[in-house]
Each structure stands twice: as structure tokens, then as C-alpha cells.
């Protein structure tokens, strides 16, 4: 995503360090946000529900690599 703004990033970085010559992509992961899910299925004690969600995402989308732990967008008590 940052590569879309490559020139701006390089210009800003060079204002701090003149030795920076380029930026490159490290990973192509974008942060998907899943809305309107059945809470009864994924609201488990601790992280059990989130672990189930992570496993289901992996099974149904085998090309997807999840580099970080699946988490709620808001406080689970607020979501309930």
C-alpha cells in the first residue's frame, strides 16, 4: 500500500536521512475487517472464538497467510 505513495515517502525519508535511496515492499498483507458475523459462534471464553475464526479463515482461504492474531475491532463487551 505504501508503494502507492513511494515518491512522497522517499522525499520525507530523505529529509531525515540523505542516504535513503529507495523503498520496497516487505509484505503484501492488507488488514481485512470482517463485519456482521454471528457473535454466538465466535464469542468464546478468552480467545477460543477468535481461534476458531482464524482457523476457519485459513481453511476457507488457503492462499491467505494471517501474519497477526485475529482480534476484535472493538471491546467484546461493547460488541455484545
Task: Kindly summarize this structure in a few lines.
With about 80 residues, the protein is mostly helical. The chain contains 4 helices and no strands.
What topology does this entry show?
Blueprint: H1 6-16, H2 39-42, H3 48-60, H4 76-79
Overview of the molecule:
This protein has 80 residues and is mostly helical. The chain has two domains: 1-28, no CATH class; 31-80, no CATH class. 40% of the residues lie in helices and 0% in strands. The protein has helices spanning 6-16, 39-42, 48-60, 76-79. The longest helix is centred in the C-terminal third of the chain and has 13 residues, at 48-60. The mean pLDDT is 80.
Residue fraction in strands: under 5%
Q: Radius of gyration over alpha carbons? A: 19 Å
Number of domains: 2
Give me the strand/helix succession: HHHH
Average pLDDT level: 80
Unreliable stretches covering 5 or more consecutive residues: none
Question: Keywords, please?
Answer:
80 residues; mainly alpha; 2 domains
